[in-house]
Design a protein that fits this description.
With 243 residues, the protein is an alpha/beta fold. The chain has helices at 4-14, 21-38, 49-61, 63-66, 86-92, 105-118, 129-132, 153-160, 179-191, 229-234; strands at residues 74-78, 97-102, 123-126, 142-147, 164-174, 194-203, 209-217. The chain is globular, with a radius of gyration of 17 Å. It has 10 helices and 7 strands. 40% of the residues lie in helices and 21% in strands. It has a 7-stranded mixed beta sheet with strand order 3-2-1-4-5-7-6, with helices on both faces.
């Protein structure tokens, strides 16, 4: 059977990630709803079974091959979109306390429907990342944060690192050659009280390259950050060049 859930289970086994029959069925429901809702609202450009299995499901859970969140960890998926990587992680790790954050309400309407179908609990937050990170209930409150956003790494770090508590980890999911972005983000990472903890380079079954960059909070978060969204986009945190 070549549906997305079966393919995902097969891919996972090859990556030494265990998926139970019950979990496979949850991914089957996920794939069905994603495909149905994508005809009404734009959730993803990837809709074929192979693509969903590999680029959405497997790509999300491969985080667990390189990092194990603590039992009962508070996790935030920043700019979650159609629920990646947060919901696949929650399916495989039901103990995680998941928050899904997105600025578009129609995506959260889809996620609310999906969570009810899967009988999974998660907090849905409709706001921009930089606004949430300035609120007491979210600022420096999470053990683990993750994002698959396409923003440059200095921008992504200012959006996501403020959510981390002391010792918390942020997973930035990037392409196969992250060195230039890592260099450009060094100043932002340091300024925001964090450090690069691990860098993993790997390939998906199709051969597509990926990198997982893990940053850990080791110091305080300056009160001035994150800045307003327009400021983050126009002037990413980078060290000023000396004349």
């Amino acid at each position: 059977m070549n549906d997305a859930a079966s393919l995902f289970s097969s891919y996972s086994r090859s990556c030494e990630i265990s998926v139970s029959a019950e979990q496979e069925e949850e991914f089957r429901i996920y794939s069905r709803l994603l495909t149905e809702w994508n005809q009404k609202i734009n959730l993803t450009a990837v809709t074929d079974p192979e693509g969903i299995a590999e680029k959405h499901f497997l790509d999300s859970v491969l985080i667990l091959k390189y990092y194990t969140p603590p039992e009962g960890a508070k996790v935030i998926d920043v700019g979650t979109g159609a629920g990646f990587p947060g919901i696949p992680l929650k399916i495989l790790r039901p103990d995680l306390k998941l928050t899904l954050l997105d600025s578009l309400n129609k995506r959260l309407v889809f996620l609310d429907t999906l969570l009810k179908e899967l009988n999974i609990s998660a907090e849905l937050v409709h706001t921009r990342a930089e606004e949430a990170a300035r609120r007491r209930e979210y600022r420096r409150q999470f053990d683990f944060a993750a994002a698959r956003a396409v923003a440059s790494l200095p921008v992504l770090c200012e959006y996501c690192l403020p959510f981390l508590k002391q010792g918390g980890v942020f997973a930035a999911m990037k392409g196969p050659e992250p060195e230039a972005e890592l260099k450009s983000a060094e100043y932002a990472v340091h300024l925001l009280g964090c450090e690069l903890a691990e860098k993993e380079i790997y390939r998906l079954p199709s051969g597509d390259g990926r990198s997982l960059l893990l940053f850990r909070r080791t110091g305080p978060l300056p009160a001035a950050y994150p800045r307003h969204g327009s400021k983050i986009a126009k002037a990413p945190l980078q060290k000023e060049k000396k004349n």
